[in-house]
């Protein structure tokens, strides 16, 4: 696994899956110029920080299972499954295909497509919820 792959996997584990919102932790992996396109919706760095804060407020657990990862230079593609437990007890599962771009060891861009496998239809926007 190259360094870019390690950075992306660590970001998924230490930012997305971490139980508490921690903006400092986000900054260790994501560049302030970070841009994300998720299911056609654009998020800048501040929007992404709000998105993470919202997810942490709604959930008790987020777990990611990486099915595959392919890297070439500073570009990393992942196919992963996200399992979510919400505070009211509901559970959801999402399949994600993502392309990450890194610069100077930080993630500067993510383009992703997310598909809900199971869960409440109100959570279909989970990838961009703010």
UniProtKB/TrEMBL annotation:
Residues 19-109 form the SnoaL-like domain. The lineage of its organism: Bacteria, Pseudomonadati, Pseudomonadota, Gammaproteobacteria, Enterobacterales. This is SnoaL-like domain protein. It comes from the Bacteria. It comes from Phytobacter massiliensis.
């Amino acid at each position: 696994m190259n360094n870019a792959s390690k950075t992306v996997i660590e970001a998924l584990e230490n930012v997305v899956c971490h139980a508490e919102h921690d903006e400092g932790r986000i900054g260790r992996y994501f560049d302030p110029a970070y841009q994300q396109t998720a299911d056609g919706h654009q998020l800048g760095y501040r929007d992404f920080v709000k998105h993470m804060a919202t997810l942490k407020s709604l959930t008790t657990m987020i777990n990611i299972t990486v099915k595959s990862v392919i890297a070439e230079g500073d570009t990393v593609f992942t196919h992963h499954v996200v399992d979510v437990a919400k505070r009211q007890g509901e559970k959801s599962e999402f399949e994600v295909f993502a392309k990450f771009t890194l610069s100077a060891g930080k993630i500067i861009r993510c383009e992703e497509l997310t598909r809900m496998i199971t869960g409440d239809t109100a959570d279909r926007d989970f990838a961009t919820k703010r």
